[in-house]
Every structure is written in structure tokens, then in C-alpha cells.
Amino acid sequence: MRRIIWLLFCREWRLAWRRPGDLLNPLVFFALVVSLFPLAVGPEPSMLRAMAPGVIWVAALLATLLSLDGLFRSDYEDGSLEQWVLSPHPLELMVLVKVLHHWMVSGLAMVLLAPLFGMMLALPASVLPVLVLTLLLGTPILSLLGAVGAALTVGLKSGGVLLALLILPLYIPVLILGTGAMDAALQGMPVIGFMLWLGCLAVLAITLAPFAIAAGLRIGVSE
Amino acid sequence: MYNGARLIRVFDVPEYSGRTPVNMSHPPRRSGVKVKPLPVELDGLACERDERELFASLSLRLEPGEVLQVAGPNGSGKTSLLRIMAGLLPPSAGDMRYGGNSVYHGAGREDWRRQRLYIGHAPAIKGALTAEENLAWLCALSSPVGTEQIWQALEQVGLRGFEDVPCHNLSAGQKRRVALARLYLEQHPVWILDEPFTAIDKAGVTALENHIMAHAQQGGMVIMTTHHGLDHLPGVRCLDLGQAN
């Protein structure tokens, strides 16, 4: 069991490494959106500071959504997914590893870049740890929920818009909690409540989403 | 007639692109059937796609050592039948039993899961990965195999020297050969093959036919679709879905 997880992880890394374009797309999108905002609304620090939580979170959310459409598509088209479904190993575990890898190359990379963009948007240094922590708890939820949508739309030729319609409503609580925590931190109020809620959602997503993803893929493959 | 010596001779590739050869100190491993399969029974199986009946009340019993060719015109449900048998698609009616136990909702499920190998139309080969990496992963989905075994299997399908080539640089026939190398690596007693001869050249087809017959002689079971005539092979049963309707 450990061996298959490790092998799958190596396979995903190799695939990502050999197509670096796919790897960088969401990150470049994230960076572009965040860096265009100061150019568009002007360099006034107080205004940037007020907008920063929303801009960073919305950019992270859309970047995740952008990268999700192809999550299972290539494995579906070349028949790999059939072999996964037929394997005696649990599909839930394999999709969890795949989503974890997706999060590492999109979500985790955004978390690491976030302090830099926070400074660009004039956030005070004391708020940056909160920004990193909310994204660290929030982006896995975005990846896991998005993967459910990606699994359900895997058989569709152009599932992009449908995926956004399916998934965006589910993203809203995460968006509200993430930006809420940032606003509270900017006003010097405690953020622990927001963090606990995000943590709850993350645990819930890690526990339940793999089953939904696997069920979606089974349906997709049997068409 | 389907002995090992013949198999190796057929697969031997004359020219060689100058890569380090595999350690050939021991003879190439042939896929021995370790576990004898149990009889497979189809009981009144039916398939409906888009409210159109492809086939209905299909009943059949397959014994170990048998090769079944599923024939029929395009759209007669050959691939659907194979996908139903592999367990990818639920049948609209009927049941399938492996050793007397239902594969869909019974004790036969786990046995069947471990003992059948399905190679579909889409051969599950990733273009960005090399032949060796592809096979290592596909085999690991059931039971891991060593690098040396993979090299030997690739040599047997005539891809010596292509082990480290990314598969998007291979031709369609070569990609299919990479997928079929699994037949030399994995230990599943039951093979379900959807159009295995597609894009394979004449010598490759003969070699594959020999390998399939050798597998059956060792007690394995093969269920395959092909438009390629198999009349010259002894003991191949044919199920014609066009006539069945």
C-alpha cells in the first residue's frame, strides 16, 4: 500500500516535471492578477491594504479553478483511469494522492508566494503570518472540492464552464472565512475562530472528498 | 508448437541501436500462469446504450484454457461486452459468475479483480513517460515488477533499445507494443483484450497469437475482440454478436 502511494507520487512528479508549462500556469495567473491590481487602482497604500485580502483570495481561488479542469482529463483520455478503477488498490487513496500532488504544485506554491504579494499590496508584516496560515488551510479545501467537480465533468468535452458553475458555490464559505480572518487581523482582532472553521472544513474535505471524487470517476469511466 | 524457443525467435530484433544490453544471464521470463483461473459464466447478460439494446440474454460458459474471440460488425457491442466483463460497465440485466460467485454483487468480485487483466482501446500509455516508467506503474497497480523484467518484456515485444524513449516519440504500433508488453510481465490468468492487433505489423501479430495460444495452453483464459481472422488457430471459440441478435 505504501509502495503504490510512493510510486504514484513519483509518477505525478515526473509527469508534472516534463510539462513545466502546466505546472506554472496557475502560478503565473495568480502572480499576474495580484500584480495588475496596484497598476489599475493606483498605488495608494491604504486602499491597497483594504483590498489585499480579497484580491489575493480571489486570485488564489480562480488560479486553482483554472488548473483543475485538466486534473483527470488526460488520464481519462489515454485510458489510465480505467486501469486505476480496475486495480485492486483503493481508488479513494489514489485520488487523494493525486489531489495532494496537485495541491503541492498549485496551492502550496501560492502559499509560499503569498507573503511577497502581501508586501506588494502594502499589508503590514504582522498580518503576513495570518495570510499564509489561512491560505495553507484554505487551498487544500479548494483543491479537494474542485477535484470533485473535475471528476464529475471528466467525460465532458468542454467541462470548464460547468465545472466553475458546480464548484464556485462550494468555494464561497472558504472565501468568506479566508478574507474574514484577514480583515480581522488587519483590525487587530483575534483570528482564531476563523482559523478553527477553516481547519474544520479542511479536515472534512480531506475525509469525505476522496470518496466523492472516486465515485465521480467511476461514473465517468463507465460511460 | 507454441514452445518458448519459437516465441523468442519470432520476437528477436535483428538490428540494435547501441544501448547497454539487458543482463541476459538467465533466460527471459515467460508469463507462466501461476493461479489457474476458475470457469467464467455469463448468465443472461444484456447491454443497453442510449436506450438501444446492443445484446440481450447472452449466456456462455468459459473454461480455463479457452480463447474466446468476440466478433461482430461495428457498433454491435463488442467493446461494451468486454468492458462489462472487465467490471468497468454495469450490465443492464443478467449476471456474470467467476467460479460460481457473482462478480458484480458477490464473493467473486475480489477474485475477479485480482485475476483479470484488461487492456482496452486506449492503452493507458502516457506520452511523457518512457516505456519503462509506463510499464513499471501499470504493473505496480496489481503487483510491482523489477526493471530487469520490464527490459526483458520490452525485448520480447521487439522494443529493445526503446526503454528510455518517451512514448510520444514512438509510433502507434510501438505504443501498442508497450501496452502489450504487460502480457509478458503480469501474472493474471484471465486476459481481456480489446483489439490487441490494432497497428501491429504482421510479425508482431504472429508473435502475439503465439503468446496468446501459449497462455491458453498453460491453462490461462483469453477473451478478445478483433477483426483479424483467427480461423488458423486451433480451438479458438467465436462469439458473433452480429448473429446473436
Automatic annotation (TrEMBL), chain A:
Q: Which InterPro entries match?
A: Cyt_c_biogenesis_CcmB (IPR003544), Cyt_c_CcmB_bac (IPR026031)
Example GO BP:
cytochrome complex assembly
Transmembrane ranges? Answer: 21-41, 47-68, 103-124, 130-154, 161-182, 194-217
Keyword flag Transmembrane: yes
Q: Where on the tree of life does the source sit, at the highest rank?
A: Bacteria
- GO MF terms on file? heme transmembrane transporter activity
Please state the span of the N-terminal signal peptide per the UniProt entry.
none
Naming one, the record's GO cellular component terms include: plasma membrane
Q: Could you tell me the keywords of this UniProt record? A: Cell inner membrane, Cell membrane, Cytochrome c-type biogenesis, Membrane, Transmembrane, Transmembrane helix, Transport
Subcellular location(s) per record: Cell inner membrane
Return the Pfam families for the record. CcmB (PF03379)
UniProt entry tagged with the keyword Transmembrane helix: yes
Where does this protein chiefly localize? membrane
Family the entry assigns: Belongs to the CcmB/CycW/HelB family.
- What job does the chain carry out? Required for the export of heme to the periplasm for the biogenesis of c-type cytochromes.
Q: List the protein's name.
A: Heme exporter protein B
Q: Which organism is it from?
A: Halopseudomonas formosensis
Lineage of the species this protein comes from: Bacteria, Pseudomonadati, Pseudomonadota, Gammaproteobacteria, Pseudomonadales
TrEMBL record, chain B:
Domain of life where this protein originates: Bacteria
What are the alphabetically sorted keywords of the record? Answer: ATP-binding, Cytochrome c-type biogenesis, Membrane, Nucleotide-binding, Translocase, Transport
Which positions fall inside the ABC transporter domain? 40-245
Identify this protein by name. Answer: Heme exporter protein A
Task: Provide the organism lineage as a comma list.
Answer: Bacteria, Pseudomonadati, Pseudomonadota, Gammaproteobacteria, Pseudomonadales
Under the heading SMART domains, the entry gives:
AAA
GO annotation, biological process: cytochrome complex assembly
Q: Which NCBIfam families match?
A: ccmA, PRK13538.1
Against PROSITE patterns, the record matches this protein to:
ABC_TRANSPORTER_1, ABC_TRANSPORTER_2
Q: Which GO terms describe its molecular function?
A: ATP binding; ATP hydrolysis activity; transmembrane transporter activity
Q: Which Pfam families match?
A: ABC_tran
The record's annotation in InterPro entries points to: AAA+_ATPase, ABC_transporter-like_ATP-bd, ABC_transporter-like_CS, ABC_transptr_haem_export_CcmA, P-loop_NTPase
Source species: Halopseudomonas formosensis
